[in-house]
Amino acid sequence: MEKLLIKGGAKLHGEVDISGSKNAALPILMGCVLAQTPVTLSNIPHLKDVTTSLQLLATLGGEIMIDERMNITVDCSHLRDFTAPYALVKSMRASILVMGPLLARFGQAHVALPGGCAIGSRPVDIHIKGFEAMGAEIKIEEGFIHAQAKRLKGADIYMDKVTVTGTENLLMGAVLAEGVTHLRNAACEPEVTDLAIFLTKMGAKITGIGTDHLVIEGVDELNGVDYRVIPDRIEAGTYLAAAAVTGSAITVANVEPSHLKSVLAKFTEAGCDVQIEDRKIHIDCRGRILKPVDVETQPYPGFPTDMQAQFLVMNALASGAGAIRETIFENRFMHVTELEKMGAHITIEGNLARTSGQDTFKGSSVHATDLRASACLILAALVAEGQTHVEQIYHIDRGYELIEEKFHRLGADIQRLSQ
Ligand SMILES: CC(=O)N[C@H]1[C@@H](OP(=O)(O)OP(=O)(O)OC[C@H]2O[C@@H](n3ccc(=O)[nH]c3=O)[C@H](O)[C@@H]2O)O[C@H](CO)[C@@H](O)[C@@H]1O
Ligand SMILES: C=C(OP(=O)(O)O)C(=O)O
Fold first, then answer.
1. Residues 318 and 325: beta-carbon distance below 8 Å
2. Cα dihedral angle (33, 39, 45, 49), rounded to 10 degrees?
3. Are the beta carbons of 41 and 197 closer than 8 angstroms?
């Protein structure tokens, strides 16, 4: 098993290139199942979750080609299998996103039930209810969701909760359905919008893109296109937070600043100087003591839950008391115990994490419990006195491309060790 060894105390400087978005790339890769002809994707990040998605597409009979510039061509013209096995679904919950495309194009999908995972129970009831409303017959047997429909039918669907992958799955079902589908209370995350734009380029008819009411007029077929996925706003936010905690000035490049409005507002409130220049964000936190911020995670355009752990580290170091409320996932404070091992003082009251500020971190041996938890431990390690070993880093490889290389180039003392 690999781990990261980080020696704290270095200031960061320079520019870091942001990779393509994991959460946009995964649904778009699954969306390739909808196309009769090959799709070529660029700006796909090199991540464990992308490898898992490609494995899943290959299991279904998709042909995958990767060129020297890392463009990925996915040819799903001859799929022969409609089952997403547990081995793949368990390592990546986003595998559930193959359900909509398979059901829409081939009239059947058999997807292993994604289990409960570290950050919450994460049910898929809204996905299932939505497909049922579109006429699918769904049975859950021996750990699998078996879905069948001669052809999905347009329906008026109100989703009880704002769900990102739920919206994406139903959207991909609706694009080939007979008639018109309304998806109400839809997620508006930039990754949902990116998927909708991709589907539109393939021939789908979607209006209301970027809003919470998507209207989809089903078409008979979709065809391959070339498509570039959006930059990863959470990766960008994580590097900005690294500059904030280390009191550094860096630039994150190849980003879409408009996707980070709620996050940038909080960096400014924390006392960081943030400047936007086209597709770059400059952050300067040199000589500044962070101010505590109160944060409540919300669906987009609110503050993202995927940035909560990183801001908790910022608040722990800040000049006074701060509070972060997690409203999306019921168990997303697993990093708190690990941060406490490093010297943080955090009080959890239900879904609220209170910090008193002015904590100092000491190097320790800590375990990454989920993807963003790993990111926050790296941030804490960058400012800790001494050495930190971050174990179980397979979580981080699911979502951060070349993390140690990128931090190393920014001046951090970080290396990957094989045990
Ligand atoms: C691959 C991907 O894009 N992952 C992102 C996606 O996860 P994911 O799409 O899994 O998260 P959802 O938006 O679906 O979850 C939001 C809330 O709705 C609940 N829910 C969801 C579906 C359902 O059928 N029933 C139900 O109750 C969930 O348990 C959670 O409490 O959005 C999350 C919230 O922005 C992000 O943290 C994840 O990084
Ligand atoms: C929770 C996350 O991802 P996933 O939904 O793939 O588990 C995340 O990206 O922080």
1. no
2. 10
3. no
Considering 32, 76, 117, 188, which one is annotated as catalytic? 117
Q: Say which amino acid occupies 172.
A: M
The CATH homologous superfamily for domain 22-228 is: Enolpyruvate transferase domain (3.65.10.10)
- Tell me, rounded to whole angstroms, the distance of Cα 400 from its chain centroid: 10
Question: What pTM does this model have?
Answer: 0.98
User: Residue 261 CB: number of other CB atoms within 10 A?
Assistant: 12
Q: Which of 56, 126, 165 to mutate to test the pocket of ligand 1 (most atoms within 8 A of CB)?
A: 165
Evaluate whether 147 touches 138 at the Cβ level (below 8 Å).
Answer: yes
Are 279 and 253 in contact, with CB atoms under 8 Å apart? yes
Give yes or no for a cis peptide into 301 (omega within 30° of 0). Answer: yes
pLDDT per position as a tens digit, 247-284: 999 999 999 999 999 999 999 999 999 999 999 999 99
Instruction: Give the gyration radius of the chain's Cα atoms.
Output: 21
117 has catalytic annotation: yes
Which of 26, 50, 161 to mutate to test ligand 1, by most ligand atoms within 8 A of the CB atom?
161
Instruction: For residue 326, give the nearest of 297, 301, 350, 304 by alpha carbon.
Output: 297
Q: What is the value of ipTM here, to two decimals?
A: 0.99
Domain chopping of the chain, boundaries: 2-19+231-418, 22-228
149 half-sphere exposure, CB direction, 13 A CA radius: 28
CATH topology of 2-19+231-418 equal to that of 22-228?
A: yes
- Is the domain defined by 2-19+231-418 classed in CATH 3.10.110.10? no
Q: What is the pLDDT of residues 298-345, one digit of tens each?
A: 999 999 999 999 999 999 999 999 999 999 999 999 999 999 999 999
